[in-house]
Inverse folding.
């Protein structure tokens, strides 16, 4: 289960940030096969995290969209059912968030100077 959570969080995050996309488009962004991506999108759909975007796609081309901008996890309920699940979820969120921050930091030099205005940065 540990490897599935970050992968599915990344898929859903790509749909939230980038808008509707096909399994093939998402696979290219994440670096995974379209078959694997398609399978996990269907799993996310089964639990109400993503759904088809009916206004896009031609023929068999299927676009997916995130159903919610954000998600949350009730740690108190999870701990009653499975004490490991809460920690596993939090580690997955931390890994995915750290990856996004590093990608952003890596892209700063490539951005135009007009975009890179002085602003706050913090370390906690």
């Amino acid at each position: 289960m540990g490897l599935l959570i970050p992968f599915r969080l990344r898929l859903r995050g790509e749909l939230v940030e980038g808008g509707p996309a096909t399994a093939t488009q998402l696979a290219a962004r994440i670096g995974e096969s379209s078959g694997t991506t398609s399978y996990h999108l269907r799993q996310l759909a089964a639990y109400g995290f993503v759904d088809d975007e009916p206004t896009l796609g031609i023929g068999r081309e299927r676009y997916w969209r995130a159903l919610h901008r954000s998600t949350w996890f009730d740690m108190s309920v999870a701990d009653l059912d499975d004490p490991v699940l809460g920690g596993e979820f939090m580690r997955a969120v931390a890994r995915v968030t750290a990856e996004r921050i590093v990608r952003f930091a890596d892209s700063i030099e490539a951005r135009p100077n007009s975009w890179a205005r002085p602003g706050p940065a913090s370390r906690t």
User: Anything to note?
Assistant: Residues 4-109 form a domain with the Arc Repressor Mutant, subunit A fold (CATH 1.10.10.10). The first helix runs from residue 4 to 18. The helical segments are 4-18, 23-30, 34-46, 75-81, 83-107.
